[in-house]
């Protein structure tokens, strides 16, 4: 039972960081894409 409680805790701590990093990467790519489109 103890193992089941520790696994979700670590997952919950890591998941938000991965989600935030993914959102930041998507925003950066979108901004770069818009800049290139505007320049062209």
From TrEMBL:
Signal as UniProt keyword: yes
InterPro entries linked: LPXTG_anchor (IPR019931)
Pfam families recorded: Gram_pos_anchor
Top-rank taxon: Bacteria
Keyword field contains Transit peptide: no
Residue ranges constituting the Gram-positive cocci surface proteins LPxTG domain according to the UniProt record: 7-40
Key words of the record: Cell wall, Membrane, Peptidoglycan-anchor, Secreted, Signal, Transmembrane, Transmembrane helix
TM region(s), chain numbering: 17-37
NCBIfam families the UniProt entry points to: LPXTG_anchor
This protein's name: Gram-positive cocci surface proteins LPxTG domain-containing protein
């Amino acid at each position: 039972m103890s193992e089941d409680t520790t696994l979700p805790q670590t997952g919950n701590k890591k998941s938000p960081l991965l989600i935030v990093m993914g959102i930041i990467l998507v925003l950066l790519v979108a901004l770069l894409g818009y800049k290139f489109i505007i320049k062209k």
